[in-house]
Specification:
Strand order of the largest sheet: 1-6-10-9
Number of strands: 10
Distance between the termini: 38 Å
Strand content: 5-15%
Structural class: alpha/beta
């Protein structure tokens, strides 16, 4: 992936700042974050199984040269998301408000409660912030067999920024109202969750298209790496690895094939109006 010279000031790097020792499990903040992780595409069991134990302590330290490079990369991707989405919103008669990005290690506080590395990257609507512990990408490669490159990281960030777009457009508020109404079964709400996640994948592909048109960031193999990351966290792949069989009613993210399909649809169409996963999947 080709780097640009642009950097965003909306990145808060909390790595090396010390901290830890916060209560994990059992509190209201934990329940809120677990619900959001589940709904936006994660496994809340890692959060809810904390049992009220104390989180690990992290000592204050200087960041390494590699960690500083990762920060620069995240700042770059954040800027390019801001620029592309500002353009997309303007083209559609809307005004974009940028999200913030927090980089952390082990755990930190978010507007949705305590954030842990085990949760993976997530978006918190309450403070309009993407939270990322970069150790997630090692797990993505080692545990789920994804091809992890710089553009894999860019795809994951663009997916979370896609949730921010959904928040700005009111999509997350509508889906949350459905969940809170209690009128729908677990399997029905899982389908809503799948549509939410696949739309974020579509938005990630749309971002890639706009950014590449402007900056020519894509190099050979980059799209394949993004697809590899998307497929690795498909529900069918995760279920096969964790339980040995596939249960479609339990899908909350979408299958590997669906995640590839909607990412590529965003990239190939370059049109935000083509990303209505809800009508496509919930008929």
């Amino acid at each position: 992936m080709k780097w640009t010279n642009n950097r965003s000031g909306n990145v808060d790097d909390r790595r090396g700042s010390g901290g830890g020792g916060m209560l994990v499990g059992g509190g209201l903040g934990t329940m809120i974050i677990a619900a959001i992780v589940f709904f936006l595409g994660g496994d809340p069991s890692a959060i809810l199984s904390g049992g009220g134990s104390m989180g690990p302590q992290t000592e204050q330290r200087d960041l390494t040269a590699d960690e500083l490079k990762v920060r620069a990369f995240v700042q770059m991707i954040t800027f390019e998301n801001e620029r592309s989405w500002n353009q997309i919103f303007q083209e559609n008669g809307m005004q974009y408000e940028p999200a913030k990005v927090v980089m952390f290690e082990q755990m930190t506080q978010s507007g949705c409660g305590t954030a842990q590395a085990a949760m993976g990257p997530f978006y918190c609507p309450a403070d309009q912030t993407v939270y990322m512990d970069m150790s997630f990408f090692k797990e993505l490669q080692q545990r789920f067999g994804a091809q992890v490159t710089e553009f894999s990281v860019a795809y994951v960030m663009a997916h979370e920024m896609g949730h921010h777009v959904q928040n700005l457009l009111g999509t997350l508020q509508k889906t949350d109202q459905l969940r809170r109404s209690g009128q729908y079964s677990e399997s029905e709400m899982n389908r809503v969750s799948v549509a939410t996640e696949l739309q974020a994948d579509f938005y990630a592909g749309l971002w890639a298209k706009y950014t590449d048109n402007r900056e020519k960031i894509l190099e050979p193999g980059d799209l394949e790496a993004a697809i590899s990351a998307a497929e690795a966290v498909g529900d069918d792949n995760i279920q096969k690895r964790s339980q040995g069989y596939v249960n479609q009613e339990g899908f909350t993210h979408g299958s590997s094939a669906q995640r590839k399909e909607w990412f590529m649809k965003g990239y190939n169409t370059g049109d935000i109006r083509q990303g209505d996963t809800f009508n496509a999947l919930l008929k």
